[in-house]
Amino acid sequence: MTLLSYQVFKTVAEIGSFHKAAEVLGLTPSAISHAVASMEKELGFAVFTRSRSGVMLTNHGEHMLPYVNAVLNSDESLQQAVSELKGLKQGKVKVGCFSSVCTNWMPTIIQSFGEQYPEIEIEVFQGTYDDVSYWIKNGIVDFGFLSTSSAGDLAIEPFYLDELVCIVPMDFRKQDDNDYIAVEEMSRHRFVVQRESTDADIQKFLRDNELRVQTGYHVVDDLSTIALVSNGFGICIMPKLVMNDIPYQVRQYHLKPEAGRMIGLATLNPQLMAPAVRTLYNHILDRYRNI
User: Fold this and answer.
1) Backbone torsions φ then ψ of 140, nearest 5 degrees
2) Cα separation of 50 and 5, whole Å?
3) Residue 218 carries which DSSP code?
4) How far apart are CA 257 and CA 262, in angstroms?
């Protein structure tokens, strides 16, 4: 199998269409079909199923995907190493991140890094903790932002402590004038909660403090959570980074006991990063560590 056949495999798998993959790769649809047919003949099994709804990976194809990504990433690493030996900084770096990092940090990172290394392209993938972890393990991204509590067995370099705060409606009646809210008081109120794949650190805080919340609202994204809170449907706990650009009118209180999520950069193997990947990785750490 050639590098082109690997690229065809990956592109078709991501897009789910031979015709659209042909447009992306600058090939004809017949060339894509021929490449896939040759690949399947060489392998001895089908890697895609075709239907009216599109093209999907077979079980064998799903099993192959991380290995194909590894081959393509290795080729990218080789090209970057050659460029570095020539005194150039070139390549593409794929970064996974969750919502608040994407909105607060990534625009500045892309701009500041681009000013120093205009020949290195950054590709951003935004999703939940589970998404980012999956992308790292399957070679879809080179590294990603995760909290230490959600990294699992991935290597992670922690660098930023993000405080957890309690978010309440503007008309919330607190039992005292303190700038914090204790677990005991929170336990009396209805919550708006997110799935653990989105807020693993908050779920950990609730478990550690035996705070059994009552809720009828289970949402995925931060903005929906704050919208429900601002309209009086409950309270919630949020990382402070999330609250920087929230358009809804709410109040924030520190937690008692204090809590936070430690954000880090997670990789599959820190020792095997390509030159461009290592350059961006270090750029982020230098910019955001201990701010």
Assistant:
1) -75, -35
2) 18
3) E
4) 16
- pTM of the predicted model, to two decimals? 0.71
Please give the sequence-ordered ranges of beta strands (E in DSSP) within the chain, or none if there are none: 48-51, 54-57, 91-97, 120-126, 143-147, 155-169, 180-182, 190-194, 214-219, 236-239, 250-256, 260-267
All structural domains of the chain, each given as residue ranges with its CATH number in brackets, are: 1-66 (1.10.10.10), 159-262 (3.40.190.290)
pLDDT, one tens digit per residue, over 37-90 is 888 888 888 889 888 778 888 988 888 888 888 888 877 777 766 766 665 466
List, in order, residues 6 or more apart from 209 with CB less than 8 Å away: 183, 257
Question: In sequence order, what DSSP letters do the residues of 30-52 get, joined into one string?
Answer: HHHHHHHHHHHHHHTS--EEEET
Q: With contact defined as beta carbons under 8 Å apart, do 92 and 123 qualify?
A: yes
Q: Is 53 exposed, middle or buried (0-12, 13-18, 19+ CB in 10 A)?
A: exposed
The token pair at 206 is 């609730």
Give the DSSP letter of residue 243. G
* Residues linked to residue 253 through DSSP beta bridges, in sequence order: 166
Closest C-alpha among 232, 236, 242, 234 to residue 263: 242
| Residue 147 vs residues 190, 199, 254, 261: alpha-carbon distances, Å | 26, 10, 20, 6
Strand bridging mode 120-126 / 91-97 = parallel
**Contact assessment for residue 42 and residue 1, using Cβ atoms and an 8 Å cutoff:** yes
Q: How high is the pLDDT of residue 83?
A: 66
The mean per-residue pLDDT over the stretch 220-244 comes to 92
The alpha carbon of 146 is separated from its chain's Cα centroid by a whole number of angstroms, namely 7
